[in-house]
């Protein structure tokens, strides 16, 4: 009876241990995403505060590239900034400067914060890996911001032309800028930029993050498989040696033993 009671106690302890182990494993699986989300929110919040200081410099970099693109294509428009206002300045043939303000332009480059926060909050990755991928994704995002401002130059002038009442000045404006900004280009710029603003801006960030993780996981998987294959070869060779079947390359490496006849 005593031994049976002892066995039941041991069985109960094993069941409790397995239950607590499963519970701890479940908590660990749950805490992983929560910690990742908390790190992401913390880094994004800190970067947003820092971005208020760095955004004027970044906007200047984007503006200069967009203006070079406008000048290279000989389009009579330049981006100008007046304090916190960003405007498209159109030079008309009469010499009059038409300035149209770009509204909510700050939202264009907020995906930069999301990209840095996402890579920075990635668990089980070294600082060198995070820094390397941040340096890779930032130039790509910068190029998308330049393209966004460039397409915005097409859209703004046509939105302004269609907003004024029909008159002779509207007709002259449409005829004048149709030579530089074809209406067909405005249509596909509007369609493309509309989809980009809805989901493309942050889908690129998430896609780049998955691409970075995929390459890292593929490298780790290849290394793991190489180790496993190497371990299988070692076990196979040991089994052959135990059976007395020595591979030729091992037999060739064995030193010859000199036998002395007494």
What does this structure look like?
The protein has about 260 residues and is mainly alpha-helical. The protein is built from six helices and three strands. A three-stranded antiparallel sheet has the order 1-2-3. Helix 3 packs antiparallel against helix 5. The protein is elongated. The N terminus is likely disordered.
Summarize the structure.
This protein is mainly alpha-helical and 262 residues long. The protein contains six helices and three strands.
Helix-strand blueprint:
Layout: H1 2-72, E1 77-82, E2 85-91, E3 97-102, H2 111-120, H3 127-163, H4 168-178, H5 183-242, H6 248-253
Antiparallel strand pairs: 1-2, 2-3
Shape field: elongated
List segments where confidence is low: pLDDT < 50 over at least 5 consecutive residues: 1-19, 246-253
Q: Order of strands across the biggest sheet?
A: 1-2-3
Which percent range fits the helix content? Answer: over 70%
Order of helices and strands: HEEEHHHHH
Number of β-strand runs: 3
Q: Which features characterize this protein?
A:
262 residues; 6 helices; three-stranded antiparallel β-sheet; mainly alpha; disordered N terminus; 74% helix; elongated
């Amino acid at each position: 009876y005593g031994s049976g009671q002892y066995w039941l106690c041991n069985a109960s302890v094993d069941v409790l241990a397995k239950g607590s182990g499963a519970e701890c494993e479940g908590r660990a699986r749950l805490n992983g995403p929560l910690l990742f989300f908390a790190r992401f929110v913390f880094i994004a919040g800190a970067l947003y505060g820092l971005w208020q200081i760095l955004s004027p410099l970044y906007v200047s970099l984007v503006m200069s590239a967009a203006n070079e693109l406008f000048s290279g294509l000989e389009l009579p428009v330049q981006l100008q900034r007046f304090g916190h206002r960003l405007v498209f300045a159109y030079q008309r043939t009469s010499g009059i400067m038409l300035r149209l303000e770009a509204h909510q332009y700050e939202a264009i480059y907020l995906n930069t914060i999301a990209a840095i926060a996402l890579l920075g909050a990635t668990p089980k990755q070294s600082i060198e890996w995070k820094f390397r991928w941040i340096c890779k994704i930032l130039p790509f995002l910068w190029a998308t911001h330049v393209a966004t401002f460039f397409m915005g130059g097409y859209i703004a002038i046509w939105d302004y032309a269609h907003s004024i009442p029909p008159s002779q000045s509207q007709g002259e404006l449409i005829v004048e800028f149709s030579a530089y900004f074809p209406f067909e280009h405005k249509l596909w710029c509007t369609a493309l930029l509309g989809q980009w603003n809805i989901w493309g801006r942050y889908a690129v960030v998430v896609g780049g993050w998955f691409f970075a993780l995929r390459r890292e996981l593929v490298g780790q998987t290849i290394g793991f498989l190489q180790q496993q294959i190497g371990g299988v070869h070692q076990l196979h060779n040991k089994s052959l040696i135990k059976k007395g079947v020595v591979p030729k390359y091992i037999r060739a490496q064995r030193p010859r033993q000199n036998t002395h006849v007494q």
